[in-house]
UniProtKB/TrEMBL annotation, chain A:
Descriptive protein name: Heme exporter protein C
Topological type in the membrane: Multi-pass membrane protein
Family: Belongs to the CcmC/CycZ/HelC family.
Gene Ontology biological process terms, A to Z: cytochrome complex assembly
Chief location bin: membrane
Pfam family membership, one: Cytochrom_C_asm
Subcellular location: Cell inner membrane; Membrane
Keyword Cell inner membrane on entry: yes
GO terms for cellular component: plasma membrane
Native species: Methylomonas lenta
Entries under InterPro entries matching the protein: Cyt_c_assembly, Cyt_c_biogenesis_CcmC, Cyt_c_biogenesis_CcsA/CcmC
Automatic annotation (TrEMBL), chain B:
Record carries keyword Transport: no
Protein name as annotated: Cytochrome c-type biogenesis protein CcmE
Stated role: Heme chaperone required for the biogenesis of c-type cytochromes. Transiently binds heme delivered by CcmC and transfers the heme to apo-cytochromes in a process facilitated by CcmF and CcmH.
UniProt-listed NCBIfam families: PRK13254.1-1, PRK13254.1-3, PRK13254.1-5
UniProtKB/TrEMBL annotation, chain C:
Function comment: Required for the export of heme to the periplasm for the biogenesis of c-type cytochromes.
Transmembrane helix is among the record's keywords: yes
Name used for this protein in its record: Heme exporter protein D
Protein source organism: Methylomonas lenta
A GO biological process held by the record: cytochrome complex assembly
């Protein structure tokens, strides 16, 4: 018995089959690239040129347009990886394994960006490159979790076993996500509280907020593109002796 | 859902609950250590460590910043809106240091009860706006 | 606004432009590395397919 209707389940199985997914990715990537540029260019123009100077921080606050979207992505991608890990463990779905491991370097990249740009912002404003407060420390642990996923996957020869181990690590590490998010509220930290997600009153002027949201969506689309590229590679690696890869090679050679 | 899948789902659910509980207890146990700084009330109540380095956070009291000599020494009061602590520091202050600004200072209390800082960091707030807007927000507050 | 003042970022040029530079480098690497590796892999697989008896 299943509570998922048969047509939907059929749709998922078809989309999740490697050759179908590979073709679908190829079809989507150009469109996603156009969308990415349509978001990125006004986002950067708005953030670096149009948005006014901040009353306290001068122009140094413009780092927000990459720091905050990158930090959001670092959390978002990890949660997705944990979900993929759950799907991979329960349904043994190959595509979920591929998506999980393909996401890890992209998430690690965003975490690294959030840490480095935060440091470059902290030096002129706070007066220090780094402090061991709860927010910064938990974000650093997130980077180690990503690197752990990547190296664990690399260390296990059999890729199906590797995927299982990595799924469990991704699920275990997900407890760190609410800790990062609420760290600035649970403990006193040098890092300031949330700006955008707090509901009561706007903490950021609308002319500064719009480019921030554009950049946030642009980074999401970037993730989709980078993920599809990485997933195509991972699928080819795993299925290099499958018939659909042979057909693909005949077509291209 | 097939029974073995349901079993795995339950297993994963239990695992997550277990890890969540363990993390909650661990964080509760280390709660004090995770605080980045003590408040000025903590110092007034004697909760802050004596003869040891610690961090003190608070807002620079308006009109309290003074430079008693020619060198870099700065003296100011920190407040958390209930208790005040006097801080002395000589060194380079961060760009954001000003009256009314939240800061975190690292140092120790001397026998006068003055906090002698070795390092001063600015803690900026989560508000971002152009200077004109900040000015127009300030005016009604000052008129009162 | 002049180009000079734009590049100067109110005196924070080093911090702002280093941030944007590092971000660009990381994002480009994560996008291009799988494309390059896939091309290499496809080339290898195509070679193998031409000589299946090896």
């Amino acid at each position: 018995m299943s509570f998922i209707p048969a047509p939907i389940s059929r749709f998922f199985h078809r989309t999740a089959s490697p050759p179908h997914f590979y073709a679908l990715a190829n079809r989507f990537i150009p469109w996603l690239t156009v969308l990415f540029l349509l978001l990125l260019i006004p986002g950067l123009y708005g953030g670096l040129i149009m948005a006014p100077t901040d009353y306290q921080q001068g122009d140094s606050y413009r780092i927000i347009y990459i720091h905050v979207p990158a930090a959001w992505m670092s959390l978002f991608i990890y949660v997705l990886m944990a979900v993929m890990g759950g799907i991979a463990l329960i349904w043994r779905m190959k595509l979920a394994e591929v998506m999980l491991i393909s996401s890890a370097p992209i998430g690690a990249g965003f975490t690294f960006i959030a840490l480095v740009t935060g440091s470059l912002w902290g030096k002129p404003m706070w007066g220090t490159w780094w402090v061991w407060d709860a927010r910064l420390t938990s974000e650093l642990i997130l980077l180690f979790l990503y690197l752990g996923v990547i190296s664990l996957h690399g260390a296990i020869e059999d890729k199906r076993n590797a995927a299982r181990a990595v799924s469990i690590l991704a699920l275990v590490g997900v407890v760190n996500i609410p800790i990062i998010h609420y760290s600035v509220e649970w403990w006193n930290t040098l890092h300031q509280g949330p700006t955008v997600s707090k509901m009561d009153k706007p903490s950021i002027h609308i002319s500064m907020l719009i480019p921030l949201l554009l950049m946030a969506v642009a980074f999401k689309v970037y993730y989709a593109i980078a993920l599809l590229q990485a997933a195509k590679l991972e699928l080819l690696k795993r299925e290099s002796s499958a018939q659909w890869v042979k057909n693909l090679l005949e077509k291209t050679v | 859902m097939k029974p073995h899948r349901k079993q795995r789902l339950i297993l994963i659910g239990l695992m997550l609950i277990g890890i969540g509980l363990a993390a909650t207890f661990a964080l509760k146990a280390f709660n004090e250590n995770l605080m980045y700084f003590f408040s000025t009330t903590d110092v007034a109540e004697g909760k802050a460590p004596k003869d040891a380095l610690f961090r003190l956070g608070g807002m620079v009291v308006k009109g309290s910043v003074e430079r008693p000599s020619e060198d870099l020494l700065v003296r100011f009061k920190l407040s958390d809106f209930s208790k005040e602590v006097t801080v002395e520091y000589s060194g380079i202050l961060p760009d954001l240091f000003r009256e009314g600004q939240g800061i975190v200072a690292k140092g120790r209390l001397d026998n006068r009860g003055v906090f002698v800082a070795e390092e001063v960091l600015a803690k900026h707030d989560e508000n971002y706006m152009p200077p004109e807007v900040a000015d127009s927000l300030k005016k009604p507050a000052e008129a009162e | 606004m002049t180009l000079g003042s734009f590049l100067d970022m109110g005196g924070y040029a080093f911090y702002v432009w280093t941030s944007y530079g590092i971000t660009t480098a990381v994002l480009l690497f994560n996008l291009l590395a799988p494309i390059v590796q896939r091309k290499q892999l496809l080339r290898q697989l195509a070679l193998k397919q031409k000589r299946p008896q090896r």
